[in-house]
Amino acid sequence: MNEFIKIKPIGDVLTGTVFKIQSDDISTKSVITNHSGDSLFTTELKEGDKITFYNSKNKLNLIKKTYTVYSITSNTVLTAIEVSVLDDNLTADQNGKITYYTAIKELDTSYNTYPDKRILKKSIVGYKEDIYFSDISLLDVDPSLVDIDEYDLVSVSTPIKFGGSNQPHLQVMGHCTSNKKIDYKVQIDGAGAAHVTTVTCVADSGGSLNQTGFIFYTISGPVAVVISVNQGDTINAAVTYPSYGFKALIPVYIDAGTSANDVCTAVFNALNDSDLKAVITAFTVSNKSSATFRINNVAKGAVTLAKVLPSMTSSSTGISFSSSDGTSSLTDTNFESDGLDSTVWAEYDRIEIRDSEKNNGFYQVHNRTDGKIIIKGNRFVNEDAGYPVIIKNALFESSGFSFATTVLGSNSTFKWSDTGGEIWNESTVTIKGMHYLSNGVRILFPLLNDYTANDYWTFSFPKPNMIKTRNKITELDNIYKCTNLC
Asked: Does residue 53 contact residue 27 with C-beta atoms inside 8 Å?
């Protein structure tokens, strides 16, 4: 990608706002006086410097005069070598009343040729007119190297300073395009909250909970709980393994006919197992009472609410199957009565089709709407409606548990200012990673949470002094070498 390099201006604006230039007669030098009393001739100038004076900051009817410093009397008075001559286009009265409001000291322009211009990484490689004066360029002209015809000068950020009790890393990205120095402040104005879910369990009736379960979500990923009935402790409950996109899949073993209270105890103990907690640290469990308990996320942040996996509530004789051009679909004309309208399957979920004539099996969902499910590939055999088809989740069915949000998880929020905190541009902005501020500046939060309220970062961008090149720095180096050797 292209790079930014520093540029060298061809003129420095002098301190001062009101200048008068006068020669007593044609044979004497000019006396230049700063009538506003705010100039710094003794510190900003030396003998031999050339100064161009402008009567206004308006490109129209602009009058300018250039003089060479002969001697400096004080901060507000100097003598110039050149005689102050009349402007032929102005009357004598008009010449005598000219007041100049801007003075620019010309810099050494011996770098006008390219080899001198390309000096390491502090080169002149482009051109930009001054915002006020059409004939003053801030840098030399070399259009072949400029990234675009019109562009902004840019600057890079000063080191980030942190204030507060916690210090997660903040990245500043982009280049500032403002025409002045900008001071930024980013401050956490909301620490966020960790999600807490209350789970209410149900009793098993003759093995009704076998191969059922539910899903809850943590900041680090979803966790699935699967219940097996009359399977014995063939697998220790603390054995977990990632599967089907879950952070962990946790088995729970119960006997047929287990009461709701005992089902709750079994699930609670499986999630609270010491071996499990050594592996999965994203949540804890607490507040076991009768058939309810709580799942507490450790990390702050918004998460998806806990849920049971969906299945149709009843079979349907209105489901037909078709495949064409790499896409398979099933359509249910009875979706409003058999539950397919309220069943929420998302992309990549796996479903099981039962009791069809030709299409029983397991499939991965690509998309769905009410009464229609799309599968990628020519997976289905064309089949008319008529069979009592039912669609289940391929992993496990609904446990019938219910969930209540005790504490709603939320991400941290921040506010930011480009006036150093004097005025806040935005506040309570939810942290989502990268955020755009102003003047082309971006910030990146590596974490969505784990921030402390009132923690802040400050950084500044100096007045822009760089430009983007069409060539990489290494390519410009090669061009420079060629101009010296070719």
From this structure: no
Confirm if 363 and 165 have CB atoms less than 8 A apart.
no
Q: What are 413-437's pLDDT values in tens digits?
A: 999 999 999 999 999 999 887 899 9
Domain ranges of the chain: 18-100, 111-151+468-485, 161-190+412-464, 196-309+403-407, 319-394
- 194-234 pLDDT per residue, tens: 999 999 999 999 988 988 889 999 988 889 899 998 875 54
Fold classification of 319-394 (topology level): Elongation Factor Tu (Ef-tu); domain 3 (2.40.30)
Longest dimension (CA), the chain: 119
Confidence class for position 97, pLDDT limits 50, 70, 90: low
* Concatenated DSSP letters of 83-131: --PPPTTS-HHHHHT--B-EEEEEPP-GGGSHHHH--TTS------B-S
Of 83-97, 197-211, 306-320, 325-339, highest mean pLDDT:
197-211
Burial class (CB in 10 A: 0-12, 13-18, 19+), 235: exposed
What pTM value is reported for the model? 0.56
242 — phi, psi (to 5°)?
Answer: -65, 140
Length in residues, the chain: 486
Residues 6+ apart with CB under 8 A from 178: 438, 439, 461, 464
User: By the 8 A CB rule, do 354 and 394 touch?
Assistant: no
